Automatic annotation (TrEMBL):
Belongs to the 2-5A synthase family. It comes from Mytilus galloprovincialis (Mediterranean mussel). Residues 187-334 form the 2'-5'-oligoadenylate synthetase domain. This is 2'-5'-oligoadenylate synthetase 1 domain-containing protein. InterPro entries: 2-5-oligoAdlate_synth_1_dom2/C, NT_sf. Pfam families: OAS1_C. PANTHER family: 2-5 OLIGOADENYLATE SYNTHETASE, C2H2-TYPE DOMAIN-CONTAINING PROTEIN. GO terms for cellular component: cytosol; membrane; nucleoplasm. Signal peptide: none annotated. One of its GO terms (molecular function) is double-stranded RNA binding.
């Protein structure tokens, strides 16, 4: 999910904190913390077989959930009267294709075509959210726990007896369709100058986050799901988006071998090697902006490829105890990974 709180940037360390609404997807057991293998993996079972048997979501359930989410999106587009929704971007783990069995979430990003600027979006956001919430009440699906935040409508939708988290976000399209770094640069320069508007820029750049992850090969997404599964079953703090980016970076640093020949075990070893050395963890990209043009925090950092002020491993100082625990566990896990 892409909810966030952004405070004033008074020092170089004043980075954005992203707050997930995720809850543990598996019941925890104290014995898990002493294990050096994936929870539920059978002795001698290959990682590929384990992913298929335990980690990957049921394809029919995913298909039905996507269909339900699509009908909600179409309802919003057809019933919105005061403003025109031009398109819908589907994000979250469902939209990016990285959902783990037993847990999925979706972001519906509604791109308004009759709102010409960030400033006008800010002024109209309360009424846009009010209208979306009103339309949502007409949905034929089982909707629960509806909540309005300053930027989103959050709710749970039931599919086959299972609840899925959904966020509705009104945004505008900032780019012209050409997302080259040269064409995106003016947007980032505006964002740099408009500190008070960065939160709105962050939301409107969410489609870039979705595209960055969703374009990856299914073999990479299988490893992403496996890392997410490990994080949840070990009760670690690493966010889902951070897990996605970490796997992508590990794959890139392996030289992007052909996925048909690459072993999942090799990629996971590369991922856990990174997690085992947090003081040297530096993850960033220059696809849309040049990271060195903005302030880089001290390691560990995983910078959002779409938003330079978003460090997904933000900490107050040094390395927090929760990350020390993550690093120790990753080292132990790496030594026994096979």
């Amino acid at each position: 999910m892409i909810t966030c709180n952004i405070g004033k940037y008074k020092t170089k360390s004043d980075y954005i904190t992203i707050i997930d609404r995720h809850v543990p997807i598996f019941k925890q057991a104290s014995s898990f913390n002493t294990m050096v293998d994936f929870v539920g993996r059978n002795p001698g079972e290959s990682l590929e077989s384990f992913i298929d048997r335990v980690v990957n979501p049921d394809s029919s359930y995913v298909s039905q959930t996507k269909s339900v989410i699509h009908t909600v999106a179409e309802l919003m587009k057809s019933k919105s009267v005061d403003h025109k929704i031009g398109s819908t971007v589907k994000g979250g783990s469902l939209g990016k294709g990285t959902a783990v069995r037993g847990r999925s979430d979706a972001d519906l990003l509604f791109v308004y075509t009759d709102i010409p600027s960030i400033e006008i979006l800010k002024s109209k956001l309360p009424e846009l959210l009010k209208e979306l919430q009103s339309v949502l009440a007409r949905s034929p699906h089982t909707i629960k726990s509806v909540k309005r935040t300053p930027f989103t409508i959050q709710f749970d939708i039931e599919v086959k007896g299972q609840l899925n988290e959904v966020d509705l976000l009104p945004i505008i399209q900032l780019d012209t369709g050409d997302r080259s770094r040269a064409k995106m640069n003016p947007i980032y320069q505006q964002m740099r100058a408009r500190e008070d508007m960065r939160e709105y820029y962050f939301k409107c750049l969410a489609p870039l986050q979705v595209d960055f992850v969703s374009r990856e090969d299914e073999k990479i997404k299988r490893s992403i799901r496996l890392l997410k599964y490990w994080i949840k079953t070990r009760s670690h703090v690493l966010k889902s988006y951070a897990a996605e980016l970490l796997v992508i970076k590990a794959y890139e640093e392996m030289g992007k071998p052909p996925t048909g020949k690459m072993k999942t075990l090799d990629l996971m070893k590369a991922v856990f090697t990174k997690l085992s050395d947090l003081k040297n963890l530096k993850v960033s990209w220059d696809k849309y902006y040049t990271p060195s043009s903005f302030y880089l925090p001290s390691p560990p950092y995983i910078l959002d490829p779409a938003f330079p002020y978003h460090n997904l491993t933000r900490q107050k100082s040094g390395i927090d105890e929760k990350y020390v625990h993550l690093e120790r566990d990753a080292k132990k896990f790496l030594a026994n990974l096979k």
